[in-house]
Amino acid sequence: MPDPRTLRDSTQIVLPCDLLESVRDDLESEFVVSVHRANGETCRIIGSPVEIRAVSDFLARQGISLR
């Protein structure tokens, strides 16, 4: 059985919400993902593993580091 952490890591990106402010509209219109505010400062981008990889590339092109 796969490790749940591995599956979770491949289906979500967790970032500070302020990093997404300038790209959130583009992100939600270009990709099939949901953006949820986890708490006051943290947002989760949730989608399929394929979409999450594409979103990761998109964010990197926008200068947003995931590490």
Essential attributes:
3-stranded antiparallel β-sheet; 67 residues; alpha+beta
Topology order in helix (H) and strand (E) letters:
HEHHEEH
**How much helicity do the residues have?**
40-55%
Shape: globular
Rounded radius of gyration (Å): 12 Å
Uncertain ranges: none
- Number of DSSP-assigned strands: 3
Tell me the number of helical segments per DSSP (H or I, 4 or more residues long): 4
- The rounded distance between the terminal residues' Cα atoms is 27 Å
Protein model, in words:
By secondary structure, the protein is α+β, with helices and mostly antiparallel strands. It has one domain. The chain has 4 helices and 3 strands. β2 (33-37) and β3 form a beta hairpin. The radius of gyration is 12 Å and the shape is globular. The protein starts with a helix and ends in a 6-residue tail after the last helix. The mean pLDDT is 88.
Short description:
By secondary structure, the protein is α+β, with helices and mostly antiparallel strands.
Describe the secondary-structure layout:
Elements: H1 4-11, E1 12-16, H2 17-20, H3 24-30, E2 33-37, E3 42-47, H4 49-61
Antiparallel strand pairs: 1-3, 2-3
InterPro entries: VNG_1110C-like
